[in-house]
Structures are given as structure tokens and as C-alpha cells.
Amino acid sequence: MALAQPERRGPQVLNIGEVLAQLSDDFPAMTASKIRFLEEKGLINPKRTPAGYRQYAESDVERLRFVLALQRDQYLPLKVIKDYLDAIDRGERPENLPPGVTVSPRIVSDELAAELHGRARALSEEQLRTESGASVPLLQSLLDFGLISHVNGKFDEHSLQVARACVQLESHGLEPRHLRPFQAAADREFGLVERAVAPLLSRKDAASQSRAAEAAREISELCLTLHRALVQDRISRMES
């Protein structure tokens, strides 16, 4: 009797519900509407059946993980993330990736999943001190002045970025008590961003919520660019 030949299987194909199931643990707020929105923006390009149904490959899921991780952890606008993906698709390593984010020259499912897994870290005070180089008194001052915060004793990546910056500023004689205007400015800028995206936020559908989040990131980036340009202008006048 002839031995049965093992069944040959092609690449796994997923429907949108199965994609959501794979992403739900790391990105519980993900919806089908947001996946379609990201497709509209050119960040993923799933194949379609003759009837028009989307078919997602594992590589599409990993691209989504990459996009969502950079949005969640780095607050990057989608157009910046798309530039990274375009570079990867050309076989290049993207320039100017945020600190701590690495990708292989090509998006390979297992490699990229491993690199992005656990990007949203919860840091203990000891870990925060070790990774930022901040002293105990400096961290306490940052907490006292509201520049960093914790939830049940755990700090996030944003607190780490603030602490690292403040360590460097301290070496220039700038202490946390001098930095309160930054917190006030951040609150004012957030108010501007919130006002700008209010019309989108008032709509309750997932696509509008996604567009509001993307617009907020883009406006925030533009505000930072404006702030940097204004400060550099003042510095150039001082040097002239």
C-alpha cells in the first residue's frame, strides 16, 4: 500500500476577525475599522479574493504590530511610520528610529514579533534609576514637581525619557524646579491638540476615533517642530 503523502499547505491566510484575535492581547482597543483605516493609509496591503474579501498573511499581522507599537509607545504619526515601512520594503534599515526600536532589514514574522514583543514596559523605581542614570533625590524631585508619575510603583517609557533628559539638564545646572514651565507648556499644547481634534472625537465610530488619534499625533509633532524652531531662533540671535 502506498504511503499517504503529507498535505502541502501554503502560507496561512487570516480573515480580519482572526487578525484581531492575534492582536487583542497586546492591543485590546484594536478594531476592524482601524485595520481598514490603516489599509487606507497604505500601511498594509492585504490580498483580496475575487469576491473582494480581504486575506491577511502573517506578514500583514506583523506590519500591524510594528505600526501599533510605534503609535502606542512612541506616539509617532502614521506618515513617519509609513516612511519606516517603505524603507524596510526597499531592503533598507530605517534611519532615525526611536531609541530602543530595532527592525530587521526585511519584516520577517518571527524576528519582528520578537523585537516588538514587550515594548510597553513597566519599570520599577530601581530600573528607572538604572536605565536613566538618575539619582534618588532627582527622581523624587521629578515626582514632587509632577514631571513623572507612576501607577502602583511602576513607571512607563515616557517617565524614562523624561528622567534621562533631566539627568542631562541637571549637568547644566537646570533642576526639576526650573522645569515646571515645560509641564505647563505641555498642558497648554495638549489643550490645543484636543480642541483641534474635537470634531473627530465627537463621532463615536472607530474610524473617526483612529483619525482623531492620528491627527493628534501629527499636530503634536508640528507643535514640537514649531517650539524647536522658535527656541533655535532665539539661540541664533544670542550667538550673533
List keywords for this structure.
mainly alpha, 2% strand, DNA-bd_dom_put_sf, Multidrug-efflux Transporter Regulator, Chain: A, Domain 2, single chain, globular, 240 residues, 3 domains, 10 helices, DNA binding, MerR_fam, two-stranded antiparallel ribbon, disordered N terminus, 2 strands, MerR HTH family regulatory protein
Q: Helix- and strand-based class?
A: mainly alpha
Distance N to C terminus: 92 Å
Order of helix and strand elements from N to C terminus: HHEEHHHHHHHH
Strand content: under 5%
Compute the average pLDDT: 80
Do you know the CATH architecture of the largest domain? Orthogonal Bundle
Task: Characterize the main sheet.
Answer: 2 strands, antiparallel
Rg from Cα: 22 Å
> Got a strand count?
2
Count up the domains: 3
Q: What share of residues is helical?
A: 55-70%
The tally of helices reads: 10
* Stretches with pLDDT under 50, minimum 5 residues: 1-10, 104-119
CATH-assigned fold name of the largest domain: Multidrug-efflux Transporter Regulator, Chain: A, Domain 2
Q: What is the general shape?
A: globular
Give the neighbour order of strands across the main sheet: 1-2
Main CATH class of the largest domain: Mainly Alpha
Keywords: DNA-binding
Protein name: MerR HTH family regulatory protein
GO molecular function: DNA binding; DNA-binding transcription factor activity
Domain HTH merR-type: 35-87
